[in-house]
Write a structure and sequence with these properties.
Largest sheet: 7 strands, antiparallel
Distance between the termini: 176 Å
Structural class: mainly beta
Low-confidence stretches: none
Strand content: over 45%
Helix content: under 10%
């Protein structure tokens, strides 16, 4: 209420322990700046003023709390991984050393050109799925994130290739042949336009009813032997093949006839043997 000097005592307890230099300028409105304080700390303080006559006035105890030190460090990105690659989709994962948002830039070059929607959840394990990609295509990408204080990080460039489109085309069967027919066996062979398995359905009617053991070897030239056939009998058969992707195909119905049982019985012993002139 009268011109007087300015001074502040302060510290982390009511014992204070620190004080500013006394500002001898005689004023009625006082302001003192305190520096070199600790972040996120509660301080006690009181103010002191002395008038021209040397009379000293001291306030009661007050407190204030300093805020945390501002975060100016961006998140550190590590362990960038490409997982679950399909023909049209890929999943990107990475880690950060503090909670942050998630986003991926991607494209056919390091210019990128496309970006995933920003995931604003603050996490340290990041997972972003990129859909609607082109099959069998080389892509570039980089990941980005921003912490709660707004500090942003962007990774280096990474690359991946999408898978080819799924194989949905079954093998094409050709060149079916029946050879080496005997009374109880026959050899059936065929070709396919891609590596595939080998199996035959067969029987004495178009309903078949019998089947050879599946040969899972993926080959182009196929052959199996039918055994235990009946002599002099007409047989129906069809050949079966499946490619590596599981696409199956079957030929149309084919037929062959086994040979008759070979005659292995000698004639009866000779009778009425005589010598004639």
């Amino acid at each position: 209420d009268e011109p007087s000097s300015s001074q502040v005592e302060y510290g982390t307890t009511q014992a204070y322990g620190s004080e500013t230099s006394e500002d001898q300028w005689m004023v009625t409105s006082h302001a003192i700046s305190l520096s070199s304080l600790s972040p996120s700390t509660t301080y006690h303080y009181r103010v002191k003023s002395r008038d021209n006559a040397g009379n000293l006035a001291v306030s009661g105890d007050y407190t204030f709390e300093t805020p945390e030190t501002p975060d100016t460090t961006p998140p550190a990105i590590s362990d960038v991984q490409v997982t679950d690659i399909s023909d049209t989709q890929v999943t990107i994962t990475w880690m950060t050393d503090e909670p942050a948002t998630s986003q991926v830039q991607y494209g056919l070059s390091e210019s990128y050109g496309q970006v995933t929607p920003l995931d604003t959840d603050l996490v340290t394990f990041h997972l972003v799925t990129i859909p609607d990609l082109v099959p069998a295509t080389h892509y570039h990408f980089r990941v980005g994130c921003r912490d709660e204080a707004g500090n942003q990080s962007v990774s280096a460039d990474y690359e991946f290739d999408t898978a080819p489109p799924p194989d949905t085309t079954p093998p094409v069967i050709d060149n079916i042949e029946v050879t080496q027919i005997t009374d109880t066996t026959a050899v059936i062979s065929w070709t396919t336009n891609e590596p595939a398995t080998t199996q035959i359905e067969y029987g004495t009617t178009p309903a078949y009813g019998l089947m050879t053991t599946l040969d899972n070897a993926l080959v182009i030239n196929h052959q199996q032997v039918l055994t235990g056939l009946l002599p002099d009998m007409g047989y129906h058969f069809r050949v079966l093949s499946s490619d590596e992707a599981g696409n199956s195909t079957a030929s149309g119905d084919r037929q062959f006839t086994t040979e008759a049982t070979p005659d292995t019985t000698p004639p009866d012993p000779p009778e009425n043997v005589r010598v004639v002139e």
